[in-house]
């Protein structure tokens, strides 16, 4: 009887894995990894989609900071929907984006202070 239970459990595991693979391959049910939705990010940043895409190509840090400032203007409870529409869906990305949205000028102020306080190079 024990062997039958193990076989049944393994069959369920195989079925679960097949479902996971099907979910990952179905474009209607899965997100394309590594692609952000620039149009949705542009809405939050307060830009037109083409302008935001060009900004992202020219200066990606500034584009992300504009997105963070837009998220910062929203109440915390309303940040989830724009993030998911922008295809920011992994836990790590969401935590990073939320931390930066709480203080959108922090990266800029840190880089300035690092430049001001860095020792000069010997000549």
Give a description of the structure:
- The protein is elongated and about 65 Å long.
- Helix 2 (38-45) packs across helix 3 (49-58), helix 2 (38-45) packs across helix 4 (60-73) and helix 3 (49-58) crosses helix 4.
- The protein is built from 7 helices and no strands.
- It has a domain at 34-116.
- The model has no long low-confidence stretch (mean pLDDT 78).
- It is 70% helix and 0% strand.
- The chain has helices at 2-25, 38-45, 49-58, 60-73, 80-85, 91-102, 106-117.
- It is mostly helical.
Which terms summarize this structure?
123 residues, mainly alpha, 7 helices, 0% strand
Q: How many beta-strand runs?
A: 0
The backbone outline, from C-alpha atoms, is elongated
Count of DSSP-assigned helices: 7
Q: Whole-Å distance between the termini?
A: 80 Å
- List the secondary-structure elements in sequence, H or E: HHHHHHH
Uncertain ranges: none
User: How much of the residues is beta strand, in percent?
Assistant: under 5%
Mean pLDDT: 78
